[in-house]
Design brief:
single chain; elongated; Serine Threonine Protein Phosphatase 5, Tetratricopeptide repeat; 178 residues
C-alpha cells in the first residue's frame, strides 16, 4: 500500500512538471520573452528535461533579442564558457554589455572582469573600474572586492579618470560609459 502511494505521488509530480513545461514551452513559442528565458533555464540546468546547452542558447537568444537582461547575461556566460556555442569572448562581451546597460549588476561585474583580464576586449583598467563600480553600487560583493584590488594597482590619474567616467555612466543610466 505504501509503495502504491509513493508511486501515485511520483506520477502526480511528474505530470505537474510536464504540464508546467508544456505551458512554458507554449508561451515561449508565442514569443513571450520571460517564458523563453524560463525555458532556456530549464534546458540549461536540466530541470525536468535532459540538460541541453544548444537548446538553452536558442531560447536565451530569443529572449535576449527582445531585450531581456537575464537572457542577455546568460547568453554572455554561454559564449564565455563555450556552452552550446563555440567559445567567443568578444560575443560574450557584447551580451554582457547589453545586460549591463540595463543595470544588471551581474553583467556589470562580468563586463568589468572582461576588461580587467582583456578577454574579448583590450585590457582596460579604467573600464573595469567603471563597471565594477556600477556593480558595487548595487551591492555586488565580488565586484566590491575586485574593485578594491584594482584600485590598488591603478595610478591616481587612472583612478580619477575612472571616477569621472563612472559618474558619467551612472548619471546617464548606464548609457554613456565609454
Amino acid at each position: 500500500m505504501r509503495l502504491i502511494l509513493i508511486l501515485t505521488a511520483l506520477l502526480a509530480f511528474q505530470s505537474a512538471a510536464a504540464s508546467e513545461f508544456d505551458e512554458t514551452k507554449a508561451l515561449a513559442d508565442k514569443g513571450l520573452a520571460a517564458a523563453q528565458y524560463n525555458l532556456a533555464v530549464i534546458y540549461d540546468f536540466g530541470k525536468g528535461v535532459p540538460e541541453n546547452d544548444a537548446e538553452a542558447v536558442k531560447w536565451y537568444r530569443k529572449a535576449a533579442d527582445q531585450g531581456y537582461a537575464g537572457a542577455q547575461l546568460n547568453l554572455g556566460f554561454s559564449y564565455a564558457n563555450g556552452e552550446g556555442v563555440p567559445e567567443n569572448d568578444a560575443e560574450a562581451v557584447k551580451w554582457f554589455r547589453k545586460a549591463a546597460d540595463q543595470g544588471n549588476a551581474a553583467a556589470q561585474f562580468n563586463l568589468g572582469y572582461m576588461y580587467a583580464t582583456g578577454e574579448g576586449v583590450p585590457e582596460n583598467n579604467i573600464r573595469a573600474y567603471v563597471w565594477w563600480s556600477m556593480a558595487k553600487t548595487q551591492g555586488h560583493t565580488k565586484a566590491a572586492g575586485n574593485f578594491d584590488k584594482l584600485k590598488s594597482m591603478m595610478t591616481p590619474q587612472q583612478i580619477a579618470d575612472g571616477q569621472a567616467l563612472a559618474a558619467k555612466c551612472y548619471e546617464s543610466g548606464y548609457k554613456d560609459c565609454d
